[in-house]
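Moderator note: this is an archived Q&A kept for reference. The question asked for a predicted structure of one protein chain; the sequence and the answer are reproduced below.
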Amino acid sequence: MGKSKTHEEYVAELLEKRGDEFEVIENYETNAKKIMHRCRKCSHEWTVRPINLLSGSGCPGCRNKSLSKERKKTKEQYVAEVLKVHGDNIEVIGTYKGARNNTDHQCNACKNIWSAAPTNILKGRGCPKCAGKNKTQDDYIKCVYKIHGDKIRVIGMYKRAHEKTKHKCKCGHEWNPMPTDILGGRGCPVCGGKMKRTHERYVREVFEVHGDKVEVIGTYLNAKTKIMHRCKAYGHEWDAAPLNVVNKGSACPKCNESTGEKLVTEILESHNVLFDTQVSFGDMGFKKHTRLRPDFVLYSNEKPTLVIEYNGIQHYRPVDIFDGEKGFKITVKRDNIKREMLNKAGIHILEIPYYKTDVEVREMIEQAIERFGIEKRA
């Protein structure tokens, strides 16, 4: 039956999902009601919704300490990092106050002074004045060579700084970026051609994009070769191309999936309906495929009446971090089995695609609750 968790059940679930990372110091009532927790690592205490911790949220105290460590970087260390990325093209003339606090820089080519966040400078962004100048074709080609050497060739006609122009990388890839991006230090999207990354630089870039949520546990080779990463929230490990993790912001697939599931949970709890999460088919009375688990099971007259599935992108097309084509075929097969078995058992199924807005998701769920007479909690 779909009953509210007890305090003990919540503590056990938190221990299973997060280890002994947190201590629950107030009584659990519902997933959506904030209660006090303590971080065992730093002893910080704060109020948070249980569903947030179960979905991967971390300790704000630990997060602030991580940011504090970044702020402790000296100006000399930052200057050395800028030199590695930009050579002697950019000089740091302001005071370094942290990766995200603007500081003054000077372009040694045009003497322009501008303020920029160090994290952006270390990602390869350069002088905005140089990037925006009106140039002839020859001027532009010379500027590209000065920044990228012979790694990038201009093969289209340059017209203006913000109009896309065809370029070709030494690796053979052709693409159409804006000249402002190329002059700002961005390189080939295929080989990560801003500069040759070291493993240490890649680890730093991952931290700049994802904070302390993602740990690099494989050794960086190049932008396209997949390496292992670990989610610090769940401990989940997955293979991903560095290009996707840094440039496209791809993070833990399990956490990404849980964001939608968290929304569904909050909507169901706001309507005070009976539901369970991740109930196995075996527990629902099925004799086959007993290990399959719907995301949510809702009840009417104490019987399973409606299953809600929040489907991520991997349910609709192949995705690298979900094992590509092979993983997609397995997912489609599993989804079809679920549909067939639920239909035969007379259990309705509501499938929510990942691209639906929060408002659309709420409307879909509310209509299903009313249509199928879902039972309210006592």
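Archived answer notes: The chain has a mean pLDDT of 82.
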